[in-house]
Each structure stands twice: as C-alpha cells, then as structure tokens.
Amino acid sequence: MLQPDTIAPSAKPVLSVTDLKTHFFTDTGVIRAVNGVTLSVNEGETLAIVGESGSGKSVTGLTVMRLLGRTTAKVVGGSIHFRDRNDQDTDLLALSEKAMSRIRGHDIAMIFQDPMSSLNPVFTVGDQVAEPLRVHKGLGTREARLQAIELLRQVGISGPEKRIDAYPHELSGGMRQRIMIAVALACDPRLLIADEPTTALDVTIQAQIIDLLRKLQQERRMAMIFVTHDLKLVKQIADRVAVMYASQVVEEGPVDEVLSNPRHPYTRALLDCIPSRRDGDGNRRSLKPIPGTMPNPLSPPAGCRFHARCAHAQPNCAAVEPELAVVEGKHVTRCIRWQEIAL
Questions:
Q1: CA-CA distance, 176 to 116, in Å (whole number)?
Q2: Which one of 68, 74, 223, 230 has the lowest number of neighbouring Cβ atoms within 10 Å?
Q3: What percentage of the chain has pLDDT greater than the value 90?
Q4: Which residues, in sequence order, are CB contacts of 207 under 8 Å at separation 6+?
C-alpha cells in the first residue's frame, strides 16, 4: 500500500464527485441507487469503495464512466469533475456522448467484474487489447499489435507472442482478468476504476492480481478507485476507504484509521464478518453476520438507513437522517451516536 508521504501533493483531485444522485426510473417506482455521494481521488492515490451488494458501489463507478445511458438510469443531481494531465478541468456530466467517448478508455478506464462477459468471445485477446490503441492513439495494425504484446508481458502473461492470438475462452480466469487489465491500461489512463476485479478468482490468483494492480498503479502514478466488498483487500491496496450502505457513503477516511477505529456501526459490522479477525490484544474474534437484509431500494427507511440492523439504534435513529460528521481530520461518519459508541 502506498504510504501517505510517498504520494506527491496535488493542488486539486484528479476526480471530484459532489452530491451525486443516480436514480433508476422503473415501472414499480424510483430506485435511488446513488443518493448524495461525494468522493475524490488524487494522483497516485487509491480510494476503495466498499459495501454489500446493492449499496451503490458499481453504479457510482458506471456513472463516472457514463455507461448507464441505455438503461432507465438518470443522473438527477450532483457533478463529476475530472482533471487531465494538462490541469484542465472537465465536467463529465456536461459532455456530449462523442466527447465522453474520447475520454472513456483513454483518460479514464475501467476493469469490470466478470472478464468472460466483458471480453468479446469472437475476437482474439490481441484484437481487444489493441483496439484502444488504434481508436485513441491512431496506431496502425502492426504497431498496435507490438504494443499489445508488450502490454500482455507487463501484466504477467507468459508467452505473449502466442497468447495474443488466443480467444477468451481458451484462457483461465486469472489470465482473462489480466487481459482486462491490459485493455484498461493500454492508453495509460489518468484514472482507473477497478470494479471488483478479483471476485471470481481463487485466493492465490486474487493475491497476484492485487499485487499487479498495486505495482502498475505506483509505476504509472494513476489515481485508482477500487470497488470491492472485501475489507481485507482494502487494507492491502488502498490509501483511503469510503464505506457505502443503501446508496450513501456512511464512513470515509484513511484506511488504517477507519479499519482500526471504525466510527459507524455498519463499518464495524463489516469488520466483524471477516473470518479469523483478531482484536487489539491478538485474540481471535468470532464471526458475527450482520442481521437482516439491505433495505428495499424503492422505499428506503426514514432516518439512518442502517438503524433496523444496528445493535446501537435508538428511537431517534429512525427519525433523523444523519449528516456526515467529522471524527478527526479527514475521517467522517454518518451516525448521530458515533461519539457515544466509539471504541
């Protein structure tokens, strides 16, 4: 993990998301998938977004990429500002689709959850790695192929001169994920969004992919958003973490501070779900599943959205929707009782 003093200071973040609201308009009602999310990430920094399935993590990333256009989703509020290498600030939500397509895959790239469904089965992996080089860099077929081979080598594909002509189904899950990373890094993006890139992999390959991403991110000084539900991975790869629950950020701050001293009951509950976790005295803690289920996104509860599952809830938790409160420095939490229940 990058240490704070190794990150070059940046006057302004590479990405600034402010009060973002992305809603899905369905026949049964409005799903507020992202509801007032504010995030930022700097050059050379990794921000992890963590939470259960349905918390809004992936939709946040897809909204930044503007990849929800053919769904019922609509951004109904907020802003997304991206700062390029020339220090030019761009409001991504104000761009036309044509202008956004010049940024997507070039300045901002994304690694998707399932490479088997993201890679095209009828094209070789070489064609798919070379495509962004041809589209965004204007390279010819031969030069794009040579650079694609080098990219495959950089992401740890053995024998890239032969693998480049393979089809996705001929490769293992770990190799397909490496291909997805090569596609995302082809144009040396300023911002990389990795959406649960290790979910379908076994623990050995998962560790290799995490090490690879961390190495490439540090070498290229990319800003990276790492979306996951696994807090153990967060500790390995991230500098800061934002915990999402029911479409909102409920806690955010430096990784070590948030994971060692969580100030939101949901963050603490996620930590209690980690097998073989130990307390401050080194004693093994028993695994404690979070009771209940995520609230219905069509009709989220009043007050704190976590109160129905929270062991510390009191009547006013169901009546008052908490704002983000500053714990210390850049550590914030969305809980009206955080001072009372602090560790």
A1: 7
A2: 74
A3: 68
A4: none
User: How far apart, in Å, are the Cα atoms of 7 and each of 200, 219, 235, 310?
Assistant: 31, 12, 17, 37
DSSP structural state of residue 261: S
Tell me the C-alpha distance between 96 and 116, whole Å: 30
Cα–Cα distances in angstroms (integers) from residue 173 to residues 23, 162, 200, 317, in the given order: 33, 18, 8, 44
Paired strand residues for 48: 226, 241
> CA-to-CA distance for 161 and 12, rounded, in angstroms?
41
pTM of the model: 0.89
Residue 88: Cβ-neighbour burial (10 angstroms; 0-12, 13-18, 19+): exposed
Contact partners, residue 206, CB within 8 Å, separation at least 6: 198, 233
152 contact partners, CB below 8 Å, separation of at least 6: 125, 126, 129, 160, 163, 164, 178, 179, 182
Q: Residue 1: is its pLDDT beyond 90?
A: no
Reading the block at residue 342, the tokens are 């602090």
Digit-coded pLDDT (tens) for 268-286: 999 988 876 555 555 666 6
Task: Name beta bridge partners: 109.
Answer: 192
Distance CA 166, CA 181 (A): 16
pLDDT of residue 233: 87
Contacts (Cβ under 8 Å, ≥6 apart) of 24: 30, 31, 33, 71, 72, 73, 74
Nearest to 217 by CA among 237, 199, 234, 201: 237
For 172-227, write each residue's pLDDT tens digit.
888 898 999 999 999 999 999 999 888 767 788 888 888 888 888 888 899 999 99
How many H helices and E strands in the chain? 11, 12
Give phi and psi for 192, each to the nearest 5: -120, 130
